[in-house]
Write a structure and sequence with these properties.
With 247 residues, the chain is of the alpha/beta class. The protein has a single domain, classed as Vaccinia Virus protein VP39 (Rossmann fold, 3-Layer(aba) Sandwich). The protein has ten helices and eight strands. Strands 1, 2, 3, 4, 5, 6, 7 and 8 form an eight-stranded mixed β-sheet that branches. It is elongated, with a radius of gyration of 18 Å.
Length: 247
């Protein structure tokens, strides 16, 4: 498997602390596809996008190379989880209506993934890849969060992270492109809940491995008096690419 696992030790935290994608995204995708029979969600992680797709498709094949992530995957009657990376032998040629990759395509070997997309999609089928980068909370908090992101753990981001920061606009995308909708992820979190989310960052894990210390502990203490006791709205702009396989 070429898909490198940056999240083996925090899979359970990832499952409970990552924000969920807006239902409007999946409603939009469902309007663009040629049918609603079969979807492939590649790099499914804990199955968040796969379960959302199951509201619109009769069957979802969800592939993920990380055993730790699959152990946290949400069960669903129409979702089949498969341990695999950028290829999916369980789908016959030209039978999928949509292929998705949620917050994952920047980790893929695209020389393997894109030919597989073309193989499994039916004519007019849709490829949807999306991501989100740094969140926004409030003017008094955002500079602190950006400093943590770029300076404290910045040197520990894998190089592929740059594609998530620019919403995949620099990623090779050899498909007939259509506009990606303007959407956001939003949650209401306390500072403690936000700190749990920070621990799902691959850069935080790599910082801890390199330095033997948790960078979130002192940062949470710095944030707390500014954040306050109650929840704050945390917002991430969603970005990505949509493309069709032309028949």
């Amino acid at each position: 498997m070429s898909f490198q696992d940056y999240f083996p030790t925090q899979a359970s935290t990832y499952a409970r602390a990552r924000p969920t994608y807006p239902v409007e995204l999946f409603d939009h995708l469902a309007r663009l596809v040629p049918g609603h029979g079969l979807a492939w969600d590649c790099g499914t992680g804990n199955g968040q996008a796969a379960v959302a797709l199951a509201a619109h498709f009769q069957q979802v094949i969800a592939t993920e190379p990380s055993a730790a992530q699959l152990a946290q995957a949400a069960p669903h009657a129409r979702v089949v989880y498969v341990r695999s990376a950028e290829t999916v032998g369980e789908i016959r040629d030209g039978t999928a209506d949509i292929v998705t990759a949620a917050q994952a395509a920047h980790w893929f070997d695209l020389s393997l993934f894109y030919p597989e997309v073309r193989r499994v999609l039916r004519p007019g089928g849709l490829l949807a890849i999306w991501t989100y980068a740094l969140c926004a909370v409030a003017p008094e908090l955002d500079p602190l969060i950006r400093r943590f992101y770029t300076e404290t753990v910045g040197p520990h981001w894998p190089p592929e992270r740059r594609h998530a920061e620019n919403a995949y606009q620099e990623l090779d995308f050899p498909f007939a492109e259509i506009p990606f909708p303007e959407l956001c992820l939003r949650v209401e979190w306390t500072v403690a809940e936000f700190a749990v989310y920070l621990r799902t960052w691959s850069a935080v894990t790599r910082y801890r491995q390199a330095r033997g210390a948790d960078p979130v502990l002192p940062f949470e203490a710095e944030l707390a008096p500014v954040w306050g006791e109650g929840p704050r709205r945390v917002t991430w702009p969603l970005g990505g690419r949509l493309g069709r396989v032309e028949g």
